[in-house]
Q: What sequence folds into this?
């Protein structure tokens, strides 16, 4: 596959994330989007009139009960006149929105683009209703109507992964503990918890091998980025990191149609494309926010992204823990920070950008600034994958 | 602080090119797509084959499925299976299956009223098939006989 993306970088001038939780304060998704955008704009040192385009990531009109949300947010955010579009790719929506915004800049069509990801996944519908809607994230005519839950599909995929890679349920317990304990230090996180082994073993079995604590929660929240052409980077933002590689790919819709039902092949392909654009190797990545909708999905992501050749060994040496050589999901990931779908990928990229600039939460900020970071999301059962690579300003 | 609102939507769904597959599920027949070029047989059907050929024929499988992986819990009982005669695997819901069953048979689309016995063992499940719509469900029953 030939990569046709231009090599130019895109500067992350502003990055902001609201709290991810189940809102009970009467605020709406429009308020969260406003807050995230305002914070990102302030960080960027830019004004509203500098913004050329607004790209909105929002997974489902069923969640928000708002069609054409980009036009609504353009008005709410005081961006009348800018080009607007909404990007949707299931769980990958946020990361795909980052890619769409970057291409506007790389093509020369825009100098500064705002990306806003938002979804009311928790407070506006019952969990049962959201779960029923999620069934239609896969093939509505097969999985959706049969009522297959996302958890069951992921469980079946992870069982196949366990056959190929020497990981066990002990490893998903460890991912669960690490992500939730990272989230304890993230004030925006939905589920900062210190889990005991007993907590996990006593949580209800949702779909073998996944217990409830192995699953990410449904959350409300928003995240925003202000992306700029390096040639128009504000003078006050010289330390801003850059997006240096983007890759996206897709896989067969039906899990059973894949030659290896445990392999996230689309993620592997997306990572290869992102690395090619960035001229990087996976081994150069020393910080990652990966898509952990389920604890096992994090291990499948590590494998597909090429971040480890021996996952059990790297987990034994705590390579991916908060103090390891390649910390994964310092934010807590979807499992700890939470999962307002449209906001997820935008928040991952924002988290990586803040960490690369040394502006993240003190207790989670690595002692030494990482050089490169990776943000990874997918939709469906990794049917749509999107990967973004970032570099610190010193690179 | 919140405003309650209920939205009811009545769809008239069209199966399009999937019509033979959907008709099969509703009557309990596994109807697969076989590529007219490489003869790969897909169930559920694939419109464009891996060999990039777009033409194929609809064929009847026996409906017998071999279980590859199964997952059970509060979400229900599901399995990744391989239907005999198909080159691809399929995710299905399991009904009235036991842990020792290694094969199951495609069940016609469930009718909530007349087939309520199928749900007798699954009342604890939090997800249910969409009644009346095409469903991929296997059971151990086959024409009144238990499977081997």
A:
């Amino acid at each position: 596959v030939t990569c046709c993306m231009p090599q130019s970088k895109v500067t992350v001038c502003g990055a902001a994330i609201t709290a991810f939780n189940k809102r009970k304060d009467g605020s709406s998704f429009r308020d969260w989007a406003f807050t995230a955008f305002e914070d990102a704009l302030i960080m960027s040192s830019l004004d509203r009139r500098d913004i050329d385009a607004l790209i909105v990531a929002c997974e489902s009109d069923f969640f928000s009960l708002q069609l054409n949300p980009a036009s609504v947010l353009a008005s709410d955010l005081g961006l009348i006149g800018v080009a607007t579009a909404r990007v949707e790719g299931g769980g990958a929506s946020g990361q795909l929105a980052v890619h769409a915004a970057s291409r506007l800049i790389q093509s020369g069509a825009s100098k500064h683009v705002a990306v806003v990801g938002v979804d009311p996944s928790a407070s506006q519908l019952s969990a049962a209703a959201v779960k029923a809607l999620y069934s239609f994230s896969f093939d509505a005519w097969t999985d959706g109507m049969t009522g297959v839950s996302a958890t069951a599909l992921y469980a079946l995929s992870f069982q196949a992964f366990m056959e190929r890679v020497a990981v066990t349920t002990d490893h998903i317990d460890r991912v669960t503990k690490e992500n939730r304990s990272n989230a304890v230090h993230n004030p925006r996180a939905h589920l900062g918890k210190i889990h005991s082994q007993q907590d996990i073993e006593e949580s209800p079995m949702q779909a073998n091998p996944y217990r409830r604590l192995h699953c990410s929660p449904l959350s409300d929240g928003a995240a925003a980025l202000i992306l700029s052409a390096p040639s128009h980077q504000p003078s006050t933002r010289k330390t801003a990191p850059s997006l240096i590689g983007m890759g996206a790919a897709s896989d067969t819709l039906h899990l059973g149609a894949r030659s290896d039902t445990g392999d996230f092949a689309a993620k592997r392909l997306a990572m290869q494309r992102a690395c090619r654009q960035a001229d990087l190797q996976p081994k150069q990545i020393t910080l990652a926010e990966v898509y952990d909708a389920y604890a096992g999905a994090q291990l499948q992501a590590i494998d597909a992204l090429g971040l480890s050749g021996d996952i059990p060994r790297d987990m034994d040496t705590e390579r991916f823990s908060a103090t390891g050589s390649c910390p994964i999901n310092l934010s807590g990931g979807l499992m700890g920070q939470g999962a307002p779908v449209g906001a997820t990928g935008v928040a991952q990229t924002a988290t990586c950008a803040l960490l690369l600039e040394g502006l993240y939460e003190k207790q989670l900020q690595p002692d030494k600034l990482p050089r490169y970071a990776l943000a990874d999301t997918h939709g469906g059962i990794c049917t749509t994958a999107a990967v973004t690579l970032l570099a610190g300003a010193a690179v | 602080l919140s405003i309650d609102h209920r939205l009811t939507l009545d769809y008239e769904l069209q199966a399009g090119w999937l019509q033979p597959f959907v008709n099969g599920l509703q009557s309990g027949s596994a109807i697969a797509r076989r590529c007219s070029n490489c003869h790969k047989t897909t169930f559920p059907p694939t419109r464009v084959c891996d060999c990039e050929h777009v033409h194929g024929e609809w064929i009847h499988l026996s409906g017998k499925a071999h279980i590859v992986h199964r997952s059970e819990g509060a979400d229900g009982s599901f399995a990744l299976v391989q239907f005999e005669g198909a080159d691809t695997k399929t995710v299905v819901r399991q009904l009235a299956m036991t842990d020792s069953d290694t094969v199951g048979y495609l069940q016609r689309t469930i009718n909530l009223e007349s087939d309520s016995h199928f749900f007798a063992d699954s009342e604890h499940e939090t997800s249910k098939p969409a009644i009346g719509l095409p469903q991929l469900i296997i059971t151990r029953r086959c024409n009144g006989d238990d499977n081997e």
In short: The two ends of chain B are 58 Å apart (CA to CA). Residues 19-27 of chain B form the longest helix (9 residues). Residues 144-148 of chain B have pLDDT under 50 and may be disordered. Residues 76 and 125 of chain B are 5 Å apart (CA to CA).
